[in-house]
Amino acid sequence: MVFSSALIENAVNEFAKLPGIGKKTALRLVLHLLKQEPGQVENFGEAITRMRKQIQFCKYCHNVSDEEVCSICKAPSRNNGIVCVVESIRDVMAIENTQQFNGKYHVLGGIISPIDGIGPDQLNIYSLVERVKADEIKEVIMAVSPTIEGDTTIYYISKKLKDYPVKVTTIARGIAFGGELEYADEMTLARSLTNRLPLENYLQQGK
Amino acid sequence: MVFSSALIENAVNEFAKLPGIGKKTALRLVLHLLKQEPGQVENFGEAITRMRKQIQFCKYCHNVSDEEVCSICKAPSRNNGIVCVVESIRDVMAIENTQQFNGKYHVLGGIISPIDGIGPDQLNIYSLVERVKADEIKEVIMAVSPTIEGDTTIYYISKKLKDYPVKVTTIARGIAFGGELEYADEMTLARSLTNRLPLENYLQQGK
Ligand SMILES: [Zn+2]
Ligand SMILES: [Zn+2]
């Protein structure tokens, strides 16, 4: 692509770094921005910069947060006794969208996957155990993807928690085995939370 | 969509204002940026803001420019005697990409389209006539889309230029009638520039 403006070339190149955005799409977006008011475009640019610069990860649940403690952990209306363990921020959002869960979260930051070189130590598992030790957590819901890696993770965490008076459950298999949690529709996700199982039942199901 | 961070919600909403970007895609892009270094994301945000704030429109050809006069108008290697008239900045880029044209441009900023309420006065036609008057322009190539509106625009401009010693040509109809110039492949576009016609021939073709 030949540009007669370095300003535009630079903006196009930056957009084209985003996943799924090719040079042609990047150019289309930049030319769209060119037609907007400078103030509006500045809002866009600053929203992006500020988001990355100011975002924090909640010191309790590792969810993204505007402050040291996230709005979910801080909410007095939410049930402290129940923690939903998920792989990622996206999963928190997916479950929040169902408006069916009133407990708290714990974001692992991934899933145990030896093939990808991800072991338990790279995930936020230690801090989960610490929360179970320190808090009045009565139930840990394992809401990880129903895959082999998910099962490994569930098994590993349940072993780590077995000496504490906490019930470990898993979300119901409304989601097809091998499916990704974040792509489940809200109804399925909500139902699989409501129909969650004690871990023993889950492990038996697999047999 | 439920967000636990206003920073993220704001960034997602800004992305979702872009054409063709829905909320889900916007979230995917924001979560991608979240994984990048803050400095990199700042570069992105600033490239966008700076682009819109600092961009100018060339005082001669109305192309986007980083300065008062664009890099094409300023280039001493380019032929002053030949001006290619296009509808938009995108068309300049499409033709520049062919690397087959060594003259200058004139960006109309649209096309005469009574149905859309766009008359000659809303377009950069007056400044084109002024350039023809003042400069040593020997040829004006009309490289507008081969549509009814394009033909109307060609006809209108050719009438405005008829008293000046300038040859008006049109790009060859390599592009299907009704097709949009900017979507033509580079080969077709390059060839249609090389095989451009004097306006008389073009008007006869239509009969
Ligand atoms: Zn939190
Ligand atoms: Zn120029």
From TrEMBL, chains A, B:
UniProt xrefs under InterPro entries: DNA_Rcmb_RecR (IPR000093), Rcmb_RecR (IPR023627), Rcmb_RecR_Znf (IPR015967), TOPRIM_dom (IPR006171), TOPRIM_RecR (IPR034137)
UniProt-listed CDD domains: TOPRIM_recR
Recorded coiled-coil stretches: none
GO molecular function, one term: zinc ion binding
Chloroplast in keyword set: no
Zn finger (C4-type) location: 58-73
Gene Ontology process terms (BP): DNA recombination; DNA repair
Superkingdom classification of source: Bacteria
Residue ranges constituting the Toprim domain according to the UniProt record: 81-176
Keywords, ordered alphabetically: DNA damage, DNA recombination, DNA repair, Metal-binding, Zinc, Zinc-finger
Pfam family, one: RecR_HhH
Annotated family: Belongs to the RecR family.
Job of this protein: May play a role in DNA repair. It seems to be involved in an RecBC-independent recombinational process of DNA repair. It may act with RecF and RecO.
Protein's name according to its UniProt entry: Recombination protein RecR
Gene name linked to the record: recR
